[in-house]
Every structure is written in C-alpha cells, then in structure tokens.
Amino acid sequence: MSKTENRANGPGDVRPLHSLCALLEQRGIRYLIHGGWAAEDYLQRERPHRDIDLASPATERLKYLECFPAADDLRSRSKIKFLYEGIPVEVTLTPPPRGGRLTVPYKNRTLRVPAKFAEPVLGSIRGRTCPLLPCAMICLNTLTRAGGRIDETSTYNEDFKALMRTLTPAEREEIEQLCRQPERLLDRLARFFRR
Question: What is the DSSP letter of 30?
Fold first, then answer.
C-alpha cells in the first residue's frame, strides 16, 4: 500500500474527515479543523489520527445537536463529543470575539487571545480544501493541553517545535510568552474575570 493510499477505518483514513466536512457544509455549520489533521497540513506530512478535532462558534451548538442527536453536550456547553463513522469527534465551541479578543476555555479559567488566532485558513488535507484553525492557535491549544509547558519527553514536542517554526516572529513571540509564564498569565486572567 502506498503512503498516499487511504487505509479503511485505520488511523490514517481520511474518508471520515472528508465526509464529515461535506456534511457540515451541506448543513450550513461553520467549523474549523484543528488538532492533528490541521497539523498534518501545516507540517506537510502524513501522520496517524485517532480522532477529529473541530472548532466552531458557540452559536453553532444547536445545529450540531440537531445533526448529531447522540452527541454529548459537555463542559458547560463549551464542548460537544460524538462518533462519526466510528471516529471520535470533539467540537470546541467558542463565544464571539469581544474587543478583538477571543475567550478560550482552559481548565477552570479562560484565555483571551487575539481574534486573528481563530480566523479560517484554507488548507488542503489529502486532496480536499478545508477551513483550518490558524497555526498559532494550534500551538496555543497544544500548550494548554500540556499544562502550559512542552518538555522534551512530551508526545507533542516534535510537532509543537515544527509548528512554531511556521509562525511569524510576532505570533511566535506571543505563544512563547505564554509558554514562559503560563501560571502568572492564567492567574492574572482569572482575577480579571472575577471582577
């Protein structure tokens, strides 16, 4: 089997992703692909995938629940999970930007990141043009998943470093600032939102 051939229902099978994108577009549901599938496009190399990660405006929540009635509506309505063609799908729902900033849930707190971090980027995932979450936001998501630090033993280390190299210097500095002082920034944001 060649590298570009799809494996039926395997970790590299792109058909469920392509089919899900087509369904969401048919239903008029706005979405962005992030996680491993988006990283594959940014890094220009195939990789195994266990799931599909999407981001959508919170206003799309009801459309998802209508389209996927068995979906779990989780975490104070900021996430939805469901199976699509046997593949786990997780949708992160975000409120609309305010003052040029987007609120992103992180544990029991929130991050306020530049709204440009959520503007769609068109990419090609194995032959299909798809809306992707910008690379800077994927790096930020990787950091938040890893508790604010990526160390040499992290499973995300190689991809994170490669993704960071694709950013502009300004984006890289913004993400690196979060990486250097994650707890202080998160504490400051938590205090601001408690006011």
Answer: -
Residue 182 to residue 178: CA distance in whole angstroms: 5
Q: Which domain holds residue 88?
A: 15-194
DSSP 84-146: ETTEEEEEEEEPPPBTTEEEEEETTEEEEEEGGGGS-EEEEETTEEEEE--HHHHHHHHHHHT
The C-alpha atoms of residue 144 and residue 105 are separated, in whole angstroms, by: 9
Give CA angle at 138 (86, 148), nearest 5°.
Answer: 110
pTM of the model: 0.79
Distance (Å, whole) CA 141 – CA 138:
5
Question: pLDDT digit string (tens) for 62-88?
Answer: 999 999 988 886 655 788 999 999 999
Residue of higher predicted confidence among 1 and 143:
143
Residue 44 included in any domain: yes
Count of the separate structural domains present in the chain: 1
User: CATH number for the domain including 189?
Assistant: 3.30.460.40
Nearest to 17 by CA among 159, 125, 134: 125
Residue 64 lies in a domain: yes
